[in-house]
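[job 0412] stage=complex_fold ligand=zinc ion status=START
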Amino acid sequence: MDLNALYRAVIMDNYKNPKNKGLVKTDKYHFVHLNNPSCGDDMNVEIYIEDGIVKEVHHDGHGCSICCSSASVMSETLTGKTVSEAKKLIAEFYELVMGKEPEDEEALGEAIAYMGVKDFPARIKCATLSWKAIEKAISEVESNGK
Ligand code: ZN
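[job 0412] stage=complex_fold status=DONE, emitting structure tokens
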């Protein structure tokens, strides 16, 4: 099996049919906006955490296929995880796109498709933008207690 072709298919599928796209923007959610001027990517995310579990993750934004598809994959990967699992997965995703072997490939799910980004250093910021946004949202929720 050609893994690169499989990974490209995952990325294009999440770009064309993004999951969890669209913000609700009620008080229930914690909202974060980040952008990546080097590519023109613009990303909004919102998260709902209850009892230490990531219940819902939504994203909305525009940018390149790597950035937009990654937001969809991020939302799917983190939903249903505990906050500590989510933080670990975010850290593992950063390592993956930098070219490090993931500790738990299965837990990363479709996010593994971004492994090839390591060969395109300019795109690392695209792949990680939504993950950085949700990481910020989680840490703000943790310090606000919301
Ligand atoms: Zn981009």
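The chain is about 45% helix and 20% strand.
[job 0412] exit 0
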